[in-house]
Amino acid sequence: MGRLVSMNVAKVGSLAALLLITHLLLPVSASASVRHVWAVNDGEKVERDDLDNPNKSANSAWDGHKIKIFGARNEIIAFQLIVEAGSDGIQRLTVSLTELRQQSGRARITYAPPALDPTNYVGRPIQLFSINYMKVETASHADWVFKPGSPVAPKDPTGWKPVQLVPENAKVGRGGFPLQVAPSQNQAVWIELYTNKTLPAGIYRGQINVNADGQKQTIPIELELFDFTLPDQNSMDAMVYYESLQPVMYQGRNLDAQYNRFAHRQRIELVHEYNIETATAAMGRFNGQDFTKALGYEGPGEGVGNRIIPRTFYGPGEDFDERASAWRHADEWMTFITHNFPNAVTFLYLPDEPGRSEYAYIRKLADNLHSNPGPGKALPAFVTKRYVKELDGSIDIWDTGPLGYDIERAMEERSRGHRYWIYNGGRPAAGAIVIDAPATDPRATIWASFKHGVDNYFFWNGVHWQHNRQKVGERRQDVWANPITFDNRGQPNKPVNDQGYINGDGVLMYPGEEKLHPDQDRGIAGPINTIQLANFRRGLQDHLYLTLARRLGLNSLINDELQAVVPRVFSDAKGTIGFAETGNEYERARYSLAQAIAKDDKRKK
Q1: The three-state (H, E, C) secondary structure of 282-334, written as one string
Q2: Beta-bridge partners for 215
Q3: Which end of the chain is more exposed for a tag (fewer CB within 10 A), N or C?
Q4: Domain boundaries, the chain
Q5: Is the predicted pLDDT of residue 165 greater than 90, yes or no?
């Protein structure tokens, strides 16, 4: 905006220049109801009472007057509209976006009202959500997430943090439109656009309508759609553990179909253990039939199935304890997988985060698999552990937290035919996947994965609502009211803070209905998204940009952007944050990649 001002000052007299500058610095509208309306990209968390956010004047999605976004076909593009209430507050706030029209063309991106089921995406390329805020009174306290009070901890961990993205048709008073905004507070509206594969490239324009207690205004919006298409299949896998029990308990019924459609839209896969019977029953999930218009799905990965089908999860069970039994079960499983899902990723999940006392058992299980003369020999042994010498030769897939990811060791293991993945988060090696970290922390984790060749990311739980029952007994947590979702304080014979407590850990989705805490019921028959998961999706789409650029041979550009965005991650971090923490940095890099991909792709055509 500064360059725009100086250019215009050169063209007009000093008085006119002063008027121009004053106009640019004024809010879009000011009254007792509304003080400011502005926009920001999807990589920021603007707190409810943050009235002096540095992005207010300009950012990658806002020039002070117009919303400007960009993307490719087959992509979900998101931004936030921030409405700051005046001294009287707002009793009834609504926001709408009817359509975007192609400049000098006939193409349209058209809004349609939402259904009760939030995962009915057909014909709904424009979606609106209100952001729900949670009061974080105490910063997360767990060294494996970040060391509290250290230089690598988030700079502003407490306050009214934006968390959930509540569909516009939720119950009024629980995030549904119209919204009520208290005096001198922000209310963000999250807006998503899906750009389908048939849209022609070009500039699309429209206007966002804001109505605050009858005071109406419009905000222009412009989408630059580049002439390339993101693939349906991810360029890296992302798996999130899912437990059917949680929606059954909190929402009153099985919602597996809805949660899997929702996850597919976010480009992640919900995972748990399977056997031949349960995998056969879920056939549509893996052959893509569950993700078709006939079953309510439209978006990235339409008609494309999931491919991660673990044989066990969070432990190996007992079927593989003895060699004869292990051979039989592994042979049956791998024969089934090879015949039905030849491109599937499967594994036997060994004891979770094992200590030394479990190493002998792990070596025995691995030997039972590896000694198999039949097809079951191909069933990989998977462990959530950084490389340890004691398990050398036993593990096919190492999966470590970012803080334990040694770049050289990972390269060595891959050279020996093994895989080396990451799970969860941990600053400064990668992002912290918690409420009190910056919005871009999940995105940084995926960029780090691209830089160092990690082809699978695992998050330990997406619906950890009835939390910690494996640690301190069952707790039917009110996750809409209490941000702490991992809490090991108060364990017998342990110091109070021995195992830590974390805001939002294990919760990437929230229940749209609430049978256990009816006052929190949003009336939405399915899952509700979070800023954390939306930024994972953004990162996975960024990964596709980087992968397309690599296929086009744009290696110099890729190296420049990796150096700018994630210069020091994993074992390179050396105790300092070495990745970008603002949405503007990522959006600048993504725009450079988009320009280069579109230009090079057009030249090669």
Answers
A1: CHHHHHCHHHCHHHCCCCCCCCCCCCECCCCCCCCCCCCCCHHHHHHHHHHHH
A2: 212
A3: C
A4: 30-229, 237-593
A5: yes
